[in-house]
Amino acid sequence: MTRLVSWMQTSERRLFAWMNRGVLRRRADALFRAVTCLGAAPATVLPALGFALFAPPPLSAAGNAALIALAASHLPVAVLKRLCRRRRPYLVWPDALACRNPLRDPSFPSGHTAAAFSVAVPFALAVPPAVVALLPIALAVGISRIVLGLHYPSDVLVGALLGTVAGIAAFGLIG
User: Fold this and answer.
1) Residue at 68 is within a domain
2) Which of 43, 124, 139, 146 has a Cα at 20 to 30 A from 32?
3) Which domain holds residue 96?
4) By the 8 A CB rule, do 39 and 115 touch?
């Protein structure tokens, strides 16, 4: 079991280093700084609220489901951050590149990624053709968190899973 854990940690470190210090970072740093904002509270809560209040069905239902999914996904995010207390990669690895004013709260799981998927999934379920735009945006938010040095790949994976499950469950309740 310890060999498996060691292999997973080594693999995650390599993937992180490739994404954080590799061609993605050098070529598109400004893009990733902008994309990461799409997982922040204003960029997720406000559009979901706007659709919930002002859009016709099925978009209003998707907005309501997104609001529920945001709340439902962030409860386990907050609990896991407190329980796991995983230090962010730039605090652990001196060679990691981090953005200005980096975060100091625990790394695991990624709240931005959970939020992006919590909003994308209900809208993709309500309007299936929208998945071709929404899923890449949610994925880009997760990738940006790694490229900017704020999260490990496993933080992003778990955040995406939490957001996806919350989005599907909330849409099932509302949609």
Assistant:
1) yes
2) 124
3) 28-174
4) yes
